[in-house]
TrEMBL record:
Residues 92-217 form the GST C-terminal domain. Coiled coil: none annotated. It comes from Amphiprion ocellaris. This is Glutathione S-transferase rho. GO terms for biological process: glutathione metabolic process; L-phenylalanine catabolic process. One of its GO terms (cellular component) is mitochondrion.
Length: 223
């Protein structure tokens, strides 16, 4: 089964990491994969464009099916391999509703994180405005306060005691935020969550290879 799958991915990209975690959780190791460099613009190569006309990663093919959106790939793999690996959609309507709600809220968190980091990375220093950086910091600070509150009310994972699709999509984003210097002291519930899951087999097996190096930014230290 896994031999019919191909994943083109970039190190440290939350959408790519989600698909990798998902494949591990469903015991689909042994798929074809290729690590590409964002810096070298390899995500704009013909190889990627043939699979993903948007020129983005991940680019994922499962048999004849192409699923380049990470959420789509996660849902598809869970539904196609229900009886294999870990079950990631709970049966309980309460847990299921909470899981879906948190999953889609992650999109907002990811965007606010990206607004702050991308502004630092992509906007030339002479064109940056302190007021824009401050606005982005304030937006992310308020967003993280929400998640801190959510995690104070759950047992260990986002939708209860069990690891679900919500955690698959959330963990890579929060891991990036901690990598960029988020304070554990200021965010104890998020830190507890992050530390409790970073050694989970599926996460450990797919840890971004370039994260052996120190991070380039400490942009989250003042959040």
């Amino acid at each position: 089964m896994a031999k019919d799958m191909t994943l083109l991915w970039g190190s440290g990209s939350p959408p790519c990491w989600r698909v990798q975690i998902m494949l591990e959780e469903k015991q689909l190791q042994g798929y074809n994969q290729k690590l590409l460099s964002f810096e070298k613009k390899e995500h704009k190569s013909q190889e990627v464009l043939d699979m993903n006309p948007r020129g983005q990663l991940p680019s994922f093919k499962c048999g004849k099916h192409i699923l380049n959106e990470s959420y789509a790939a996660c849902f598809f793999l869970e539904n196609q391999y229900k009886s294999q690996g870990n079950k990631l959609i709970p049966d309980s309507p309460d847990a299921q509703a909470l899981m879906y709600q948190r999953m889609f809220e992650v999109l907002t968190l990811g965007q606010k994180m990206l607004d702050l980091v991308a502004y630092k990375f992509r906007v030339p220093e002479e064109e940056r405005h302190d007021s824009a950086i401050q606005r982005n910091k304030e937006a992310l600070t308020a967003e993280l306060k929400l998640w801190e509150g959510y995690l104070n009310k759950t047992d260990s994972c986002l939708a209860g005691k069990e690891f679900t699709l919500a955690d698959v999509v959330f963990f890579p984003v929060i891991a990036v935020i901690f990598r960029f210097g988020l304070s554990s002291e200021s965010h104890p519930a998020l830190a507890k969550y992050y530390n409790s899951l970073k050694d989970r087999a599926s996460i450990k097996a797919t840890w971004p290879p370039h994260w052996q190096e120190p991070p380039e930014l400490d942009v989250m230290k003042t959040i």
